[in-house]
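EI: anyone free to look at a 117-residue chain?
SC: sure, send it
EI:
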Amino acid sequence: MTVPAADSRALPHPVREEIRLEGILHALSDPLRLQIVSRLAEAGQELSCSCFDLPVSKSTTTHHFRVLREAGVVRQVYRGTAKMNDLRRDDLDTLFPGLIDSVLDAAARQAARTATG
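SC: here you go
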């Protein structure tokens, strides 16, 4: 049986052991990236980039997804012509138990506080 050629559209991701806390915190320090992660956590499944209506250009959106991918927060794969995004919750919860839930909870509390503020 032949092994298919490596997909030229495969995107590089850090393996679990390469994911660093400071990289995650940097990736989550931007409000748009935090919004992306929150949406992925709520969905609990892969979402295409086109599902995110961000108030920035396509190239800036691509940059934000790349920062999240390179930090190990999301996994991106091509499915046909769509680039699909999934939160790497298993990896993150194994390495840093409770971190993602704590950050997302804090972000939601902050949003509620500033909305009523």
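EI: The beta strands are 47-48, 74-79, 82-87.
SC: 👍
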